Amino acid sequence: MQFEFTPRVLALRAELLKFMDEHVYPNEKRREEELAANARAGRPYAELPMMAGLKAKARERGLWNLFLPESEHGPGLSNVEYAPLCEIMGRRYWCAEIFNCSAPDTGNMEVLARYGTKAQQERWLTPLLAGEIRSSFAMTEPEVASSDATNIRCSIRREGDEYVINGRKWYITGAMNERCEIFVLMGKTDPDNADRHKQQSMVLVPKNTPGITIVRDMQLLGMYDPPFGHPEIVFDNVRVPVENILLGEGRGFEIAQGRLGPGRIHHCMRAIGMAEAALEMMCQRLVSRVAFHKPLSEQGVWRERIAESRMLIEQSRWMVLNAAYRMDTVGNKVAAKEIAMIKVLTPNNCVKVIDWAMQAFGAMGLSQDTLLTHFYAYERHLRVADGPDEVHRNAIAKQELAAYQ
């Protein structure tokens, strides 16, 4: 395996780094000001005014839809090629949207590109690819352990030419955003099927459909996340046409498995970028602060933490690249073990780096004056999102034991 950057990726990487220096880092303060202005205006989930201009610049420079391996819709990069680019976007947790590469839109666009009908693609994929609307993935439920998708209770019942949806979802990322127009919803069309993996289906549900109630936005570690939001939503006799089904009844689990692999590895790629940014902040802080008559950077404990941080980041990066290589060469299903391993390893490693960076900053590391609290919340959330550690550890162990049973 060789993970050398191709000339095309080197060019995109250089352009992306330049874009971050010119347009992302200088706009961090402006972003906070616009978030505050939206909140004062009573529209905390409205798109920030600066985003439209930044998206136009990114698109002009060819930094758009980089995540899609299908050349029909995107640049046709492999997972290995996309990895260093996604990592750069992760250096600021909010900026992937500028390049139309943010979750959950990326996963939903991949679902529509691979499983959607031509009509579904024209109605929803085309505006998503253009960045004209946003979307959400409605799977997680409060009443059940929905990291096991077979537990999903949300009902999708056919009545004539319509599906009637009843259920409660929560932590539905992006659903509060004013530009979110479509849910990819997972529920059960055949709850009595003897094959538990054939009970579920996925259906497209426009956000403005009658019967949809956003109950409340959910906090992440005590913080709300405008302009995206992660709300609790009730679907009460929500009716959509039968042609809104994706791939067909009973295919929901199959679609979910195809969607979650890329989604998980993209999260891990961005997480590595955050950890790199945290390590940079830590080093800058340590060389500028003196305690006990010498710079913190000269004290043994901090040198040990810097070295350990570098090793944790590199370990995560190479494991992610290996998983990406496996996805590219043998497919997402066969690469399931490698994806499970990075889903456990990466957030655990990266949150440790971020925690040390927060300690280096002392009280400031817990405040709004650095990005570290946002980084920490993102990484801690990643340890639970798409299944907690124990789910993935169990999957890894099952594959290891299979040869001996």
From TrEMBL:
Domain Acyl-CoA dehydrogenase/oxidase C-terminal, residue spans: 250-399
Residue ranges occupied by any Acyl-CoA oxidase/dehydrogenase middle domain in the UniProt entry: 136-238
Enzyme class, broadest EC rank: oxidoreductase
Any single biological process term in GO: fatty acid beta-oxidation using acyl-CoA dehydrogenase
UniProt GO MF annotations: flavin adenine dinucleotide binding; medium-chain fatty acyl-CoA dehydrogenase activity
Cofactors demanded by this protein: FAD
EC id: 1.3.8.7
Gene3D superfamilies xref list: Acyl-CoA dehydrogenase/oxidase, N-terminal domain, Butyryl-CoA Dehydrogenase, subunit A, domain 2, Butyryl-CoA Dehydrogenase, subunit A, domain 3
Domain Acyl-CoA dehydrogenase/oxidase N-terminal: 10-132
Family per record: Belongs to the acyl-CoA dehydrogenase family.
Subunit organization: Homodimer.
UniProt-recorded name of the protein: Acyl-CoA dehydrogenase
Organism: Variovorax boronicumulans
